Amino acid sequence: MRGGIMIKPEGELKVSFGYQCNSNRDSSCEDSDEYETLPELRRNSSFSCLSGAALSANATLANTNICNGLIGAEILPSWDSPNSFRRVPSSPTLSRLDILSSSLQSSLSNLSCSPSTPDSDSYLLKSMSPPSRSEGFLNAMEVQVAGGAAGEDRVQAVCSEENGWLFCAIYDGFNGRDAADFLAGTLYETIVFYFNLLDWESSQESIKASSGLDLDGSLPYIEDDSNTINEERFLPQIYRDRGSNVDNVSKNAPCAKPKISTDSFRHGVLDSLQRALSQAENDFLYMVEQEMEDRPDLVSVGSCVLVVLLHGKDLYTLNLGDSRAVLATYGDGDFMNGSERLKAIQLTDSHTVDDEGERMRVLCDHPDDPMTIVAGRVKGKLKVTRAFGVGYLKKKKLNDALMGILQVRNLLSPPYVSTQPSLNVHRISKSDCFVVVGSDGLFDFFTNDEAVKLVHSYILSNPSGDPAKFLLEQLVVRAANCAGFSMEELMNIPAGRRRKYHDDVTVIVIILGTNQRTTKASTCV
């Protein structure tokens, strides 16, 4: 993608990738040497292009030897493509997880952090022969991948040209990059496994339904007076509490059974995302326990998690922590009336002590601990209330690995930080324009409305430009103004010291399109 960028110092803009689909075969980008023409996308895709960029502020080790160094030496290099998308074969499901599990001294079914019963997800992950990738939910023979690291942030994007789906993730690490690296190396493959498992479970449910049996494990939906689907056994608790975020079954649906089936599948996708995250958490904490004698700092390493999956016209989100996905939409009324008022709708929750709902939840979970929140932080340590990793706030054994002032005093009723994600599915409409996906560093300087307005104005004036880079440029300008520096002065401050003025920042902008606009793809190099 083209478009000027003012961030010049070498090594500061750590990640910058773009992927563009054009309906015009004579588009200027196809004639540019900066693009490589790729095969046509199927028309069931709901996005026309995306761009990603990341800027570092923290000084951090390049990698870790966690899991005997396999993540850094074998897994992450296969994912990292920080300056362009590149085509890779769709590797057999669990190939990366097999590498990891082979390095463990015990099988995943015996993880100290995981259930050890034969019904546990860990047992299934190790013992079940997974379906073929071509038969799964994210079925693809090959994919386009891009991603990399900036400071403690990690970003990933995976796109299927043949089927038009898009997977994006931002892992905002803290206290080190180990947790974010682990997620970047394993979560996508784990999610694919559970999607394949979902396909298998769905086929089993269809067999049960056709036989007329009401067996345990079926999907018992209840339709209330407002035609809203309420499902109790299949969804995780946090999702049942957030029922307003699930697309309701249309009141004008011509046939109830197909809509229930579609809605149940969406619920299944969200449940699969949560199960994959839970599996990754279990595996990570297990590895931390194995290595904490040599590296006790690992018990404090964690990461926020934001996953965005665009499949057909369904936009799924999973998040832990304070990263955000913000939808820019005209809304049905404004779009139909031709109004230009673009609205910013946050699709994710902010899991911090600043959120009154989250604050009250944490306090209610620990009624006998008067020191649950100290100085605006959970146990005086962490502002986010939900996060991946940070084992010392979840298990006493991991907290005991720390020494002196690093150890949490009076850890009365762990876990204090939840790994229960917020989950959401949004049905893309013609009035939806784009989605801004960003780590909290972006929103330290811009409100949701400001970010949307900046992207919108830039796209209008630079239709083939790079909105993610543009947002980073504007953030640096604002950060420099706040600090009383010129932009060049701010960017010349070394990483680590510059963290005083801005955080690591990762941005992905997904341009949506539902009017048959996605026909050709180009990879930015």
Supply database-style keywords.
disordered N terminus; 525 residues; 20 strands; alpha+beta
> What structural category characterises the helix and strand content?
alpha+beta
Helix content: 25-40%
Beta strands, count:
20
> In angstroms, what separates the terminal alpha carbons?
8 Å
Reported for the largest beta sheet, the result is: 8 strands, antiparallel
pLDDT < 50 stretches: 1-6, 22-43, 102-120, 122-134, 214-260, 514-525
Shape: globular
Strand order of the largest sheet: 2-20-1-3-19-18-12-13
- Give the helix tally: 14
Radius of gyration: 23 Å
Mean pLDDT: 76
Provide a quick synopsis of the model.
This protein has 525 residues and is α+β, with helices and mostly antiparallel strands. It has helices at 28-31, 70-79, 95-103, 121-127, 178-211, 237-241, 256-291, 331-336, 356-365, 396-399, 440-443, 448-461, 467-483, 487-491; strands at residues 13-22, 35-38, 47-55, 81-89, 142-150, 153-159, 166-174, 221-223, 229-231, 302-311, 314-320, 324-329, 343-346, 373-374, 377-378, 388-389, 422-427, 432-438, 505-512, 520-524. The chain contains 14 helices and 20 strands.
